[in-house]
Amino acid sequence: MNKTARFHSAVPRARPAGSRIIEAYSLKLGRRLQCFGEAVFEQWIRLEVDPTIQTFCERPLDLNFADGVLRVDFWVRQGDREMLLVMDDACEARSTIIDGVEMAVRIVPPAELSASKMWTDNWQRMLVAITCSRTEIPPSLQQSILKFVAEPMQLSRIEQEFSAGDPTPVRAAVFCLLGENRGNGKNSTLRIFPRP
Known about the structure:
This protein is of the alpha+beta class.
C-alpha cells in the first residue's frame, strides 16, 4: 500500500451557512488548516493527537452518489486502512472506491464528540503549548522528564523541577510525551488514560 498521503490539501468549498471558520496549525501535516464548525474542529483535535493516525486531510473531496453529493470532512490513514469521515449525521454510512482502494465512509455522530468533549477541550489547550514551543523542546528534556516522573504528580511539580523561568517549554515537553504516547507504557506513571 502507498504510505504517502492520498490527499494533500482541501478542495475549495464554501463555508456552510451559520458555521464558524476555525483556523489551526497541524503539527502532523506541517501546515495550517481551516475547520468549518465546532464539530469538525473537535474531530481535527482527535485526529491530530491520536498516535495511531499517520496522516489525514481536511475536506479532501466531494463524493457524487446517485442520491446527491456527500461532502467529506476528512480522509484518514490509520495503520493499513484508509477511511473518509463525515460530520453530518443526516448522512448514511457507505463505502466508495478511490484509486482502486475501497474506503469506508464513517459518519461521526454528535454523541461521540460530546462524549469526548472534556478530552478535546484539554487537548485544544495542550496543542497551543506544543505548537508554540515545538522548536524549544530538546529530546534530552523529554528523557529527563520520563526519568523524573516515578509516581503520579502534578504538572506544576514537573515545571518547578525543570523550568529556569518560563514553564511553557517544560509543559510542552510533557504534552508532547503524552501526544506521542511515550509515557503510557505499562509501568509508566506519565499516562494519557487511567490504569486498567
